[in-house]
Amino acid sequence: MTNKKLEKIQNVAVNQTIKLKDGRNLGYADLGNPEAKPLFHFHGFPGSRLEAAIFADRVVQNNIRLIGIDRPGMGLSDFKKDRTILDWPDDVVELANALGIGKFAIEGISGGGPYAAACAYKIPDRLTTCGIISGLGPIDLEVEEEMKSIRRLSFVIRRMPWLFKLIIFFQSRGLKDLEKAERKMRKTIKKFPKPDRKVMEDPNLLPLFIKESAEAFRQGNKGAIYEGKLYAKHWGFSLEKISPKLKVYLWHGEVDEVVPVAMGRGVCKAIPNCEGKFYPNDGHYSTIFKYFDEIVNTLIS
Q: What is the set of domains in the chain, with CATH numbers?
């Protein structure tokens, strides 16, 4: 197969959209075996459906169907005014119905964690399992340790929105030139914890990661800015109210400097039927890459 033909097939799989009942477009990537058990992937922040495509080879190796979805205002998904985190399960159900999928598993990584939790709370009957990987928790979550970085960011979003907008602006502008962004990222990686640094220094991975991040700003900054505000307010539900009938799995690295492990432990403790795995020698990025096979096979088994 020629490179052009292969690229065309990949584009068809990655750049999919459906029209929702309210008229919005929802973008998604549909990867792997269409006959295999489906696993819906909720990307980090800011991010896009292309995050799922980073794992394309391993999706094939594990014989699964991985469906990555753009959240409103990011990638190919239209912005939705006044949306809440609890609106997300409705979009997921519409997509599942359109694809002819009855029950399915879900996983949310980092900023996708709240959306996985929202689905676990709102549509447990449609889910087989739920996975949260290095996931962000509610800002008012009771934790055993101080989380200064998370509290500081929440304060900026709520009390200094102009500064948060400026942060997002510079982040998006820095991703316009992908080659320049990659060179800058190589310097930034040197400050990462060792396990994350080892993963992100992979020359094949970094360009995909940069492209996936840039796709979040395809429509501009509006979607990312709005989503940041959602994280910093009450989610509209309590983790304790998630049905105990639904099995939730959680994976978190103990040297995570993006989402502290204290948050992961707090989320696991709050969810009624949650089984957590905490890795002493892994960080925010290494956890998903190192344990991808274990994670997906746990969720679809």
A: 3-300 (3.40.50.1820)
Q: What is the DSSP letter of 13?
A: H
Q: Are 112 and 42 in contact (CB under 8 A)?
A: yes
- The Cα 30–Cα 15 span in angstroms is 9
Q: Which two tokens stand for residue 197?
A: 């640094």
The pTM is what? 0.91
Distance CA 88, CA 262 (A): 26
- Strands 248-253 and 274-279 turn out to be parallel
Residue 17 CB neighbour total at 10 angstroms = 16
Taking alpha carbons only, the member of 241, 300, 252, 301 closest to residue 275 is 252
Helices (H), the chain: 3-14, 50-53, 56-61, 88-98, 113-122, 148-159, 161-173, 178-189, 194-200, 205-215, 222-231, 261-270, 286-290, 292-300
Q: What is the Cα Rg of the chain in Å?
A: 18
Predicted pLDDT at 29: 97
Write the pLDDT tens digit of every residue in 202-237.
888 888 999 999 999 999 999 999 999 999 889 999
**Two tokens, residue 48:** 């896009």
